[in-house]
Amino acid sequence: MKRIITTFLVIALIIISLTACEKKPDYDVYIWQSKGEMADALEELVDNYENETGKKVKVISNRASEDHMGPLRAEMNKRDMPTVYSIQGQRELEEWLGGGFVADLTDWSFADEVAFGKGGISRDGKLYGVPYNIEGYGFIYDEKMLTELGLTELDIKSLRDGSFEEFEEFVVSVDQWINGQDVSGKWAKINEAKKEGELENVDSVIGFPGKAAWVYGDHLVNIPFVYEFGTQDKALVAETIDFTYANQYKAILDLQINFSKEGFSNDLLQNDYDEQAKIKFGGGEVFFIQQGNWAYGEINDVNPDKAMRLSFIPLKVPTTAGDVTIPENHPDSMPVFAPNYWAVNGKVSSDLQEEAKAFIEWMYTSDIGKDFVVNKFNFIPAVKGFESSDLSSMYSLGLSVMDYVEREKALDGVFMAMPGGWSMNELGNVLQGSYITSGKQEDFEAAIDHSIQKWEELRK
Amino acid sequence: MKQLRRSFPFFVAPALISYILVVIIPFMMGIIYSFTDWKGAYVAEWWVGLKNYRIALSGAEFLYSLKLTLLFTISNVILVNILAFTLALLVTRGFKASNLFRTTFFLPNVIGGLILGYIWKFVFDVIFDKMIYNLTFMEFFRYWLQDERKAFWALVIVATWQMAGYMMIIYIAAIQNIPEELLEAADVDGASFLSKLVHIIIPLVAQAFTITIFLTLSNSFKLLDPNISLTNGGPGRRTELLALHIFKTGQEYGRYGLAQAQAIIFFFMIAVVTLAQVYFSKGKEIES
Fold first, then answer.
1. How far apart are CA B42 and CA A99, in angstroms?
2. Nearest 10 degrees: CA dihedral of A78, A32, A345, A57?
3. Residue A265 contacts B, CB cutoff 8 Å
4. Cα separation of A365 and A356, whole Å?
5. B209 within a domain of the structure (yes/no)
6. How far, in Å, CA of A127 to CA of A144, rounded?
7. Cβ separation of B41 and A14 shorter than 8 Å?
8. For an interface test with B, which of A13, A66, A425 has the most B Cβ atoms less than 10 Å from its Cβ?
9. Contact list, B235 vs chain A (CB under 8 Å)
10. Do B39 and A95 touch (CB under 8 A)?
11. Which pLDDT does position B288 carry in this prediction?
12. How many CB pairs under 8 A join A and B?
């Protein structure tokens, strides 16, 4: 007995002595951010900041492509938590708000410089995060491929601004041309086009990544819900959904799969994001892929010349499908959203919070910072103060997104306010497991029903 | 002897400290958290009673993962033990290269589960699907990881490959413990290999069966690493075993309180099953 007591006393002593050490944090700013692609560039920028101001900045980036919330939650459990971190939309904001981890930025002078959205991410009138950048997605196309097909600039514009049906007509015509059939009607002129130059490797109209459920789960599903909700705020509070525009969603999904090389089959599941962006599009096998401006990096790796000629045509849905009509359809607009926001930790001392804000402001207003933001991070900036000289080396897809924003043809990214994991697991993955390979109506309806039920469960 | 007694706490301390810090304390914390609405970074509500347990036991995905894990465990236990026992018998025949074979069969167990999954992913996706299929055009080789049923068996194959070596070692030790005289006596009486096997070897190896079935049972139930790297639950969520499901409930959905409740239930299930198994097996062992 004595032995056992002694043992436990020794152990208790050792454990207590390990945990009792108090230390002041040895940094001024601690960034824990979630965009892996910019990790190296950010570290470089931080070195510049340290040289310029003499402050110490600790930066950790989440380089894994997996969900960042898990590791971030673990960081928040430590005594020395991050002072600056990433928030990706309303749903995450709500989680952090519940624990008091976000500082109120409403009175911050820099926040007025944010040009996109309403200054950043906010709740009940209070501002909680400023956007890293903005992003958009739609059908990426190579201008040269379309002009070699015989299209004029006006044709391309009409496809961009036109309806779903008009786009579908074009897709059908191109498919006929690829199969060597005679095209009649509006697009008869593409009969003249030859399979050479940029069109040499073409084998199908659209490239679809069956394996990347986030493309048709998270992103594509934004379209029907933009019409059901309108804004992220409504999506955040909705306890149930109708999925009113499921038929419209099916229309644009079917269009992509039917005119892909694989069609509804198990082969479709072999294509992941890399296959879609690098091989199918970068290799010139398809005319369109549904992706975002970030895909520029992949395409540039494979074919830098092609990467310079890229632009977006918006994802469209039919105004009427089944017997459901969208009151105000915007086939000429594309979803633009801020995927990541810089948030300041509300639980650290006010000194650390001020340091954090100073760094963020420096990043977007100083000359070195601006240079990094556009050229090294490859961001489309969301703050004012970026002159055309700063943006001169902005890449093709970035310019395309900015064009849509300037023409006020941007839709909200409501998918960011959906219940955690819903769009990916309860819709994307379910479709992946059944409908994507079968093409059967029952499978589609079962997936939709499942997702509606799951939304309600997750919101309880 | 007295010196040994004095220094006893210091020898035991490091291992005991690690065990307490890494296993006991988190387990206690987990029990407490399972009664709260824990969000990972903070606790939203400190007492929600049995709500988490109720949701856990009625959740469709949880029950599906449970059913899948049970099927998986049964398949695995049978296959691993048959394979391990067969290998052990082969390796104790006295062939020249026995030691080399022993090492080779044991090697998969040394490789971590995560890496194992990735290696086999390559085998199924590239070697089977792209290389062999393109040569032979046999449907059998396609879509091992994309087809729901094939993916299940892919997981079984990987888990069996990982565990068989370890169990083989246990069987080898047990077989080598059988007194030579018994086998020689049987040979003199003209017994065939099969009756030797059934009447002498298996009964005397019964003790090893208790251990190996216990190990394969609990390891299969708890399987996580190969699950993540081979299929990550895919296609859709059709190969999401229980451990992975609990992990995702926390990590992806942010419902850590619920995940904790699921984990506690998981713990009880494994404890009950394995303890029952050991109890019944012990009754069947023979003292040699």
1. 6
2. 100
3. no
4. 15
5. yes
6. 43
7. no
8. A425
9. 269, 429, 432-433
10. yes
11. 41
12. 91
Q: What are the angstrom distances between the C-alpha of B223 and each of B158, B215, B218?
A: 11, 12, 9
In a domain, B188, yes or no: yes
The answer to the question of residue B232 being in a domain is yes
DSSP 3-state assignment of A185? coil
Determine the Cα–Cα distance for residues A249 and A235; give it in Å rounded to an integer.
Answer: 17
Strands A84-87 and A410-411: unpaired
The tokens describing A376, both together, are 């090294």
Verify whether the Cβ–Cβ distance A433 to B41 is below 8 Å: no
Domain presence at residue B247: yes
pLDDT at A385 over 80: no
Task: Give the gyration radius of chain B's Cα atoms.
Answer: 23
Q: Enter the tokens of residue B4.
A: 């040994």
* Contact yes or no for B40 and A69 at CB 8 A: yes
What's the domain range around B145?
59-287
Question: Model confidence at A23, in pLDDT bands (50, 70, 90)?
Answer: low
For position B212, which CATH number holds? 1.10.3720.10
Q: What is the mean pLDDT of chain A?
A: 88
Which token pair is A334? 């594309």
Whether residues A98 and B40 touch (CB distance < 8 A) is answered with no
Q: Is the pLDDT of residue B30 over 70?
A: yes
Q: Helix B148-176 and helix B98-110: axis angle, to 10°?
A: 130
What is the token pair recorded at B262? 């699921």
Nearest to A432 among B8, B17, B236 (CB): B236
Q: What is the dihedral of CA A319, A321, A327, A333, to 10 degrees?
A: -40
Name residues whose C-beta falls within 8 Å of residue B2's C-beta, 6 or more positions apart in sequence: none
Q: Which of B271, B277, B265, B276 is nearest to B66 (CA)?
A: B265
Q: Say whether residue A96 is in contact with chain B using an 8 A CB cutoff.
A: yes
- Cβ pair A139, A313 in contact under 8 A: yes
In the predicted structure, residue B266 carries a pLDDT above the cut 80 = yes
Is the dihedral angle over the CA atoms A262, A265, A266, A269 positive or is it negative?
A: positive
CA distance A425 to B145: 18
Domain count of the fold of chain B: 1
Point out the residue among A10, A67, A76 whose CB comes nearest to the CB of B252. A67
Per the CB < 8 Å rule, is A69 touching B16?
no
SS3 label, residue B64: helix
* DSSP 8-state code for residue B201: I
A458 interfaces chain B, CB cutoff of 8 Å:
yes
Within an 8 Å CB–CB cutoff, is residue A73 touching chain B? yes
d(CA A326, CA A317): 9
